[in-house]
Structure formats: C-alpha cells, structure tokens
Amino acid sequence: MNAPFIVRTRPHIAVIGAGPGGLAAAMLLAARGLRVTIFERDSVVGGRTRTLQAEGGYRFDLGPTFFLYPRVLREIFASCGADLDDEVELIRLDPLYRLIFAGTDPLTIDATPDLDRMEAEIAKINPADAQGLRRFMADNRAKLAAFRPVLERPFDGLADYLSPAMAKGLRHLRPWASVNDDLARHFCDPRTRLAFTFQAKYLGMSPFRCPSLFSILSFLEYEHGIFHPRGGCGAVSAAMARVAERLGVEIRLNAAVERIVFEGNRAAGVDVAGTRHAIDAVVVNADFAHAIPGLIPPVQRPQWPDGKIAAARYSCSTFMLYLGIEGALPGLAHHTILLAEDYRRNLAQIEAGEIPDDPSIYVQAATQTDPSLAPDGHSALYILVPVPNLRNGLDWAATTQHCRRLALDRLKAIGLHDIEPRIRSERIVTPQGWRDDFAVGYGATFNLAHDMRQMLHLRPRNRFGRGRGVYLVGGGTHPGSGLPVIYEGARISTRLLMEDLGVAAAATPGD
Ligand SMILES: Cc1cc2nc3c(=O)[nH]c(=O)nc-3n(C[C@H](O)[C@H](O)[C@H](O)COP(=O)(O)OP(=O)(O)OC[C@H]3O[C@@H](n4cnc5c(N)ncnc54)[C@H](O)[C@@H]3O)c2cc1C
Prior knowledge:
Helix content is 32%, strand content 20%. It is an alpha/beta fold. It has 3 domains: 12-90 and 230-312 and 448-501, 3-Layer(bba) Sandwich (FAD/NAD(P)-binding domain), CATH 3.50.50; 114-224, no CATH class; 316-443, Guanine Nucleotide Dissociation Inhibitor, domain 2, CATH 3.30.519. The radius of gyration is 22 Å and the shape is globular. The two termini are 18 Å apart. The protein binds flavin-adenine dinucleotide. Flavin-adenine dinucleotide is lined by residues 16-21, 39-42, 47-49, 63-66, 68, 256-257, 285-287, 291, 318, 384, 439, 445-446, 474-475, 481-483, 486. The site of flavin-adenine dinucleotide has 35 residues, from helix 1 and helix 16. Pathway: Carotenoid biosynthesis. Pfam families: Amino_oxidase (PF01593).
C-alpha cells in the first residue's frame, strides 16, 4: 500500500468526467465527508449513459439501454443515505428481449426469466436443449458466487491471486475456454448457445473469443432481470448527479481537464481552462485510451506508455441510428436482437475491419414500455449495428450512408416495413462521432477488450501510475465495462483512495 497523504482538514478530490463511474465515485467520496468537484467536458452528465434530446420532443438513451443487476447501485445509494428506487422507477421487463435468428426461415423466441416458459422457448430452437437451462442456471449461480470476490477487489499484482477466496473464484476463469465453448456443456444447438452468448457483445467481443467467465452475463439477465429505468438509463445518471449534489458535490459542466499536475510523484492539481485547482487526489473517469495520454505525463505511468495504449486491443464500435417515428409500432418488443444467419462471418468481418454485409442489429423501442420518451402518438427507435472501431482506418464520411441504408433495410427482418416515410427526427452516431463528439478512444464504445491479457492486474489498475493520488474508474479499469461492474469499480477505487488518505470507507456488504 502507498504511504498515506498528509491529510488536510477536508481533502479535495477532483473527479474527471461525469460518466457512471465518475458519478458513483463522487457520491461515495462525498458521503464520507470529502470535498468533491466533478469536472465534465460536456454540457450534460452521464457520459455514454446520458439522455439524447432530439428535435420534436423525442428522447433516447445515447448508449446503455439494458439496466442489469441493480443491486450494486442500490447499495451505493443506500451507503449515501438515498434510495435508488425512490429516485428512479426501475421497470422489470418480461420478456427480456426478442431474439430473431435471421435466415430464409427465421426463428423468433421471446427470452423470459420465467424458466418454465423459457424452456418452451428453447424447445422451439431444439427440444434437446430445453433441459440444459436449469443446469446452466445452477452452474452460473455457483460461478457468480465464487467470482464475486474477484469482481469486488483491486488487483495490484500477483500477490492478489494468492488468497483461498481468489483461488476459488479464479478457477472459474477457465482461460482456455470461450463462452461459446463453455455453453457447449449445456446446449448442443449453436443457435441456443448463441442465445446465451451473444451477450459477449455487451463487452464488444465475440462469444468465440470472450473468456468463458462471461457466461455470467446472460445468467444475470435471467436470474436478476433486465430493467428499463423510466426515462431511460440516462435517468439513472441524472439521479446520481442529483444525489451527489445533495451530498455537496460540485459538478462543473463544460469544464474539460487539460492535465493533471504532479508535485514530485503526487497528483497535486488539475488544470481547467487556464486555472489550476489544488487537489489531494484525482479520480479519472474519462475514457482511458482517449484521455490518459494527454492527462498524465508518461513518466507517471511507466506500465502504460503511449505506445502500449496505442497497441492495446479495443472493443468493436457501434453505428447508431436514433429515429423519432410518427405513429405506433404495434407488436414490436421493447428490445429486439436480430442475429445474423452467419454470425461467425458477421464477427469475422468486424474483426477484419469491414462493414458486415449481413449484419446483426439491436433495436430498442423504449416507447413500447415508456411512452414518456416521445410525444403522444409517436415512437422512439434506437438501432445499433456493431461495426469495426477506428483502428482499421475505415473512411466514415464515405461509409455513413451505406451503413444507414444497411440498418434501415435490416429493420424489415424484424417486421418494420413502413418506417422510412414516418421518420420525423433522425440522428446518426458513427465510430468517428464516438471519438470526436463523445471522447471515446478509437471509437471503441466498450473500452479496452476484456481478454485475458487485459483483465485483472493486466488491466489499467484502479490505483493508477507510479506516484500517489491517481485512481481510475469506468470501463477502462478493473473489473471492466458494463454498468454494474463500473459501479463496482467505483467502490473499489474509492476504497483505495480513502485507505490512502486515511479516511474510513463505508463497509461493502460481503467485506
Ligand atoms: C452504444 C452503447 C451501448 C451500451 N449498452 C450498455 C448496456 O445496455 N448496459 C450496460 O451496462 N452497459 C452498456 N454500455 C457500456 C457502458 O456501461 C457505458 O459506456 C458507460 O457509460 C461507460 O461508463 P464510464 O464510467 O466508463 O464513463 P463514460 O460514460 O465514458 O463517461 C466518461 C465521461 O468523461 C468525460 N470526459 C472525457 N474527457 C474529459 C476531460 N478531459 N475532462 C472532463 N471530462 C472528460 C466525458 O465527456 C464523459 O462524460 C454501452 C455503451 C455504449 C457506447
């Protein structure tokens, strides 16, 4: 552990970025009596988890639409004297989502947390696989229980692997197996396996490469539910900002941090628009690949020199269409996932830096559950197409219209034939837009890839760099990307920060 700082009466912590990780960290630190200032370069809070206000009164989530495993955020709210369920209405969805296996004879199933009904849905794919469901659930229940301690603690080095609890959890990593390999133990039909492994895409990864541990993603959906926060996931970020402000956090919008200033090896200030703010520690929530090279001098991060950041492996990107639609969308599910007929080819094309010719797409029609997101008699449609990140050098100025056409044409496969004449508002975000407008390095929307060479102590660490006083939160640090793990990461990093400052952290359940 690093030596404690000399503690002033009320240490001042700067949080760079008001994304989910930054907001959670600010709440936790302020609740322990620290003075916290969030500096956010944008004019709104939430980062990728924000609400987009579109012309004509339509509202969309910019990024996350699946709110999973609220337990972590509920605990964070409770430790701050607030109640998540008082601040945001969480609507549990059933069905969870509609899955369409594309092809000449498409197959549709409605995934449901009701296991009897789900067995019947799986039987539509392959009757032999229905009996694998309860085994899959039991197996992953045990896996999550064993692995939770790994997700709830920092990994500073090899010594962190030595405790018995770690050994038990890490056994489940099975680094030689992918999620797809792992699921073969339960389901024989490749389509059933896909129904329980496409969730690797939440990490921007292929189920054929993503470590087997991540079969817990689909388990979490079936066991703990998928929620739609009324108003969208952006409403959760807004609630976090509200609670943070109640706790005394100052949120400065349109305030990009230019650099972290070090005195010796200690973070001592942040520069914002020509003004230096003295600090005792800094929490960096800004996207790792985008921000770290500019914020922290290389001498302070010998483990992550610029060359290593540039050469790291990153998630795929996403091409986004946010459409305000006149009229209703009868029969459309809240979430629909269209899985390409040749899913492997779809992934291979993305990995090769090509736009898939027959892409998988994800469509959210949040107004099916939450009419507040569009004017009366209108609907809001969010379309996501996984595409290569910017490392492959695609020219997005030349590719955007092609991708838009591809996405609109794919809507027919989910039963939406008459959309184009009804479009009343339209916004596109390309990988280039993710980079230039939303400060996402390489447009890699799900951060650093979650492969075994970039996980645990090999991921940028929660207590970061060679000096003192810099902590990371967000998808680029341990445990990784996705809202529940980002919130958990904020607990880990703030615990380290408070330990280093000699401030008592709130107890984490399970500690
Ligand atoms: C399209 C998409 C869909 C997703 N879907 C889901 C989902 O359904 N469920 C799920 O759990 N997760 C999902 N995710 C993943 C993840 O949960 C979100 O991306 C999440 O918002 C990442 O949070 P973060 O804490 O890393 O910070 P970010 O959301 O990246 O926020 C970082 C903040 O830092 C700010 N910043 C950057 N540089 C500076 C600077 N120099 N000074 C000040 N501020 C700065 C940025 O403006 C931003 O506000 C999705 C992501 C995307 C993009």
